[in-house]
Amino acid sequence: MDDHIQQAWQFYKSLGSPKFICAPMVDQSELAFRMLTRKYGTTLAYTPMLHSRIMTESKSYKDEFFTTCPEDRPLFAQLCGHDPQVLIKAALMIQDQCDAIDINLGCPQGIARKGLYGAYLLEKREQVLTIVKELKQNINVPVTCKIRMFKDRKRTLDLTKDIQEAGCSILTVHGRTKEQNKDFVGQCDWTIIAEIKQILQIPVFANGGIYTWSDVERCLQETKVDAVMSSEALLENPALFSGEIKDLNDLALEYMQFAKQYNARLAEIKAHLFKLLYTGLQIFTDLRSKLGSAKTYEEHLEVVIELKNKRADVPKEDKLGWYKRYQNFKQPQNNKDKSLQKLENIIQQQDLLIQKNDPQ
Ligand SMILES: Cc1cc2nc3c(=O)[nH]c(=O)nc-3n(C[C@H](O)[C@H](O)[C@H](O)COP(=O)(O)O)c2cc1C
């Protein structure tokens, strides 16, 4: 085993060989949310993507978007950008407060095309490899990468080998192409992740297609990766990695405490509450509007408390996050369990009430 591979494993083990990872998420994997998911089984978390150029130009950007605390470890800070010198400068600003610097090679948005980063940079093989090499030589924490796959399987496999060779210590693979975005998200390909895990020697994390705890177990088993990273399912259920079913309203209340303690931004709070309270807000649509127009921390908290009180009579419907519940609703009548049946009755009553008040 060459030195780099050995160091990569030493590094991964020094973090406690984390298996359950909170993904980097702009406006959503902020300190407060990371601390909540860590409480419920996340063993490594990523910051939201930080723009390397803006970070080096604006102290207020860094102070607003990169916040952490001693308990927020292990932590990988994710950067985007295409200029190795700028990426190095940004990495040097935060390397003392994180365990690794991750390069975003997966963002599929139009803004990433304009700025030449994320999945668009991934197409520039030489530039990617230069960035990994230069960063590795110039900073004192390991460099990791998060990629999407190409449509061309061989091209993906070849590039991952090159990235490893260039000095990447951990590779996260999102098993979708950059075209699988927005309305075209579709299936995540775990077979390519399994293949990458087989051919690489550094630790590999799988990302994509995780909705439930059984998906987590299945993904580990089918791909043999070292860890599983989740994004959207964790947003809906921050306790996903505990493997237990928790009350989403209680989790929302707990999130609000963390949000206060760690000064979450209102945009982050609002976006979290819409996902956390998804089912309740489908039933109590007045609260959905109230959440939409909430302007202060207290107004957001009020919605969480009001919803909790209104839901007191509703059975525990937070079985598996909204995605699975939606599937349950589609099951034939006699397959539904009693609590789902009761919940559906409540929704129907609400619909009738809405129709009565709004005859249109
Ligand atoms: C709200 C949101 C913000 C995201 N921001 C980032 C980001 O900053 N960096 C990144 O690499 N991926 C980002 N992603 C992509 C996720 O990290 C992840 O790759 C993708 O959602 C697939 O994982 P999932 O199937 O578990 O959701 C974001 C996704 C969401 C939903």
UniProtKB/TrEMBL annotation:
DUS-like FMN-binding domain boundaries: 22-310
A Gene Ontology molecular function term of the record: flavin adenine dinucleotide binding
Presence of keyword Heme: no
CDD domains, A to Z: DUS_like_FMN
Keywords associated with the record: Flavoprotein, FMN, NAD, NADP, Oxidoreductase, tRNA processing
Catalyzed reaction equations: 5,6-dihydrouridine(16) in tRNA + NADP(+) = uridine(16) in tRNA + NADPH + H(+); 5,6-dihydrouridine(16) in tRNA + NAD(+) = uridine(16) in tRNA + NADH + H(+); 5,6-dihydrouridine(17) in tRNA + NAD(+) = uridine(17) in tRNA + NADH + H(+); 5,6-dihydrouridine(17) in tRNA + NADP(+) = uridine(17) in tRNA + NADPH + H(+)
Cofactor: FMN
Domain of life per record: Eukaryota
EC number: 1.3.1.88
Name of protein: tRNA-dihydrouridine(16/17) synthase [NAD(P)(+)]
Keyword tRNA processing: yes
Stated family: Belongs to the Dus family. Dus1 subfamily.
Source taxonomy: Eukaryota, Sar, Alveolata, Ciliophora, Intramacronucleata
PANTHER family: TRNA-DIHYDROURIDINE SYNTHASE, TRNA-DIHYDROURIDINE(16_17) SYNTHASE [NAD(P)(+)]-LIKE
Listed Pfam families: Dus
